[in-house]
Amino acid sequence: MQKPTVHFPRPSAGDFYNTARKRVHEYFKSTGQTKHANANMVIKTIVMIAIYIVPFILMLTGVISSTWLIVAAWVVMGIGMAGIGLSVMHDANHGAYSINRKLNDIIGNVIWFIGGSGTNWRIQHNVLHHSFTNVENMDEDLETVPFLRFSPHKKKMKIHRFQHIYAWFFYGFMTLMWATTKDFRQLFRYKKLDLLKTQKRTYPSLLAELIATKLMYYGLFVALPIIVLPIAWWQTVLCVLLMHFVAGFMLAIIFQPAHVMPDTDFPLPDDQGNMENKWAIHQLMTTVNFAPKSKLFSWYVGGLNFQVEHHLFPNICHIHYKKISEIVKQTAEEFNLPYYSKETFFEALRAHKNFLKQLGTAA
Q1: Is 5 inside any structural domain?
Q2: For 213-230, b where at least 16 C-beta lie within 10 A, e where not — what string?
Q3: What are the φ/ψ torsions at residue 93 (nearest 5 degrees)?
Q4: Closest to 321 (Cα-Cα) out of 360, 348, 295
Q5: Residue 214: left if φ>0, alpha if ψ -120 to 50, beta else—which one?
Q6: Is residue 4 part of a domain?
Q7: pLDDT tens-digit profile, the chain (363 residues)
Q8: Is the pTM of the predicted complex or chain greater than 0.90?
Q9: Which string of DSSP letters, residue by residue, matches 295-344?
Q10: Could you tell me if residue 297 is inside a domain?
Q11: How many domains does the chain fold into?
């Protein structure tokens, strides 16, 4: 990944984005709603954290002692871990949870308890992915292990012809990589790229924070269960790995169909680093919604099935995405711009699988 030097054309009065922003602002003004979290969001936060923490407490206190129930409890924790990542810390780290920055920071740092780093996440996700979506060597979400090819601009390997089959297994390692080596590698890379200043942090302080939070996480969620649970230590380790696999798989199958799709574009800048389209139009061309009518699904995934709205308005809490999606879609149609959306989640997964196959076989 190179240091961000890509530039988008400046927006102008009356263009798509300014029109959409004005209409969304009028929506909140006319309804009297806050753009941030409401009571329903607070309830969701409690529920997601409970799904993650309650099974853990039940195991530690001996309420759950059967081996298979313990395994089931770790699986439920994986579901809760993914839910926290999708529905709680995600909004907070975008500054969308509350108007209070300190509260956003506190809730955003819940990521420490699922093995990640809030600062690294904000750089990768907010600074790089949201700014340069699907731009080769800029969007770090495209930067993955060599045997996965997410962009048509990546060098193709023979093994890629099978990636539509094996990718699903490796998706399960997403959060495990966060919890082990990825955060340290990212921190060192972001220091070299001078990206730490975007978070107003220094390398020594972040390294100390990273070490401390990793020790806290491993002490609480690995060492303590090994000591307390009535199963062999290696069984506990396998259960922790299972929890991460469940969480990583669920997160990956939500995030990947939002951008790595047959419909989406993977534009490159010119020799001067200039992009052809304005940033908001770029987001429309590189992003896909799915399952817009599924209320329960949307509730669990933190509204990230409305990925177009999230990319255009990341500072708005996801509980509002369904409503403002009507505004965004109508505005895009008025400006004769694409608005990609799949009717169901499984349709999106199928399209993603087909695109992985295409990337693995096409020249």
Answers
A1: no
A2: bbeebeeebbeebeeebe
A3: -75, -10
A4: 295
A5: alpha
A6: no
A7: 555 679 999 988 889 999 999 999 999 999 999 999 999 999 999 999 999 999 999 999 999 999 999 999 999 999 999 999 999 999 999 999 999 999 999 999 999 999 999 999 999 999 999 999 999 999 999 988 899 999 999 999 999 999 999 999 999 999 999 999 999 999 999 999 999 999 999 999 999 999 999 999 999 999 999 999 999 999 999 999 999 999 999 999 999 999 999 999 999 999 999 999 999 999 999 999 999 999 999 999 999 999 999 999 999 999 999 999 999 999 999 999 999 999 999 999 999 999 999 999 976
A8: yes
A9: HHHHHHTTTTT-HHHHHH-TTS-GGGHHHHHHHHHHHHHHTT---EEESS
A10: yes
A11: 1
Instruction: Indicate whether 279 belongs to any domain.
Output: yes
Q: What are phi and psi of 338, to 5 degrees?
A: -70, 150
CA atoms of 271 and 48, how far apart (whole Å)? 46
* Distance between first and last Cα of the chain: 23
The length of the chain is: 363
Range of the domain at 62: 16-361
